[in-house]
């Protein structure tokens, strides 16, 4: 399944980033998925849930942001949604339109969970009054990898 390999790739990138930031858990992951990427959001969500088990992303909230496919005609300059499946020809001109958006497959946002992992959440140590419980930390997706934040895509 296409979505499973995408989920596995995204999870390994995010796990690596969480490890580098010293976080044992990831609270929120937001993926940006173009409607022309061929990814079925519900299949991705399902695959993510399975692939995240036994990783730092287990139980993380997955948000999926869909990006509309848009294209522009290089001849007349008209910009319009491509639709799905995409219509890539400009009807009046007969020219091939350039796709502007809709192929995204990116990690848009990651929040790390800095809550100390504890068997017994109620009985932590004496510094319980500091209000740091449940703190999350936002990670700039640009920091996720030295490479781009694009998920490998077949
Ligand atoms: Zn045109």
Your description of this structure?
With 154 residues, the chain is α+β, with helices and mostly antiparallel strands. Helix content is 19%, strand content 26%. It is built from 2 helices and 7 strands, in the order αβαββββββ. α2 links the parallel β1 and β2. α1 packs across α2 (41-51). Mean pLDDT is 84; it is low at 119-133. It holds the Pfam family HypA.
Short summary:
The chain is of the alpha+beta class.
Chart the SSEs and their pairings:
Elements: H1 2-20, E1 25-34, H2 41-51, E2 61-67, E3 70-72, E4 79-81, E5 98-101, E6 105-113, E7 136-139
Parallel strand pairs: 1-2
Antiparallel strand pairs: 1-6, 3-4, 3-5, 6-7
Bound molecules: zinc ion (ZN).
Strand content: 25-35%
**SSE order:** HEHEEEEEE
**Structural class category:** alpha+beta
User: Briefly, what CATH class of the domain at 2-66 and 104-143?
Assistant: Alpha Beta
The backbone outline, from C-alpha atoms, is elongated
In CATH, the architecture of the domain at 2-66 and 104-143 is 2-Layer Sandwich
The biggest beta sheet reads: 4 strands, mixed
Number of strands: 7
Overall residue-averaged pLDDT value = 84
Which fold does the CATH topology of the domain at 2-66 and 104-143 refer to? hypothetical protein PF0899 fold
């Amino acid at each position: 399944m296409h979505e499973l390999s995408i989920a596995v790739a995204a999870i390994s990138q995010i796990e690596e980033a969480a490890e580098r930031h010293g976080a044992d858990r990831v609270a929120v992951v937001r993926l940006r998925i173009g409607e022309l990427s061929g990814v079925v959001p519900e299949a991705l969500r399902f695959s993510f849930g399975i692939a995240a088990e036994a990783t730092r992303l287990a139980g993380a909230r997955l948000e999926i942001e869909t990006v509309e496919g848009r294209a522009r005609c290089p001849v007349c300059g008209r910009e319009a949604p491509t639709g799905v499946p995409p219509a890539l020809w400009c009807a009046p001109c007969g020219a091939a339109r350039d796709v502007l958006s809709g192929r995204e497959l990116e990690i848009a946002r990651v929040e790390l969970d800095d809550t100390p992992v504890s068997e017994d959440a109620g009985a932590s140590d004496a510094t319980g009054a500091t209000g740091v419980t449940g703190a999350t930390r936002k990670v700039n997706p640009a920091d996720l990898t030295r490479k781009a934040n694009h998920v490998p895509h077949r």
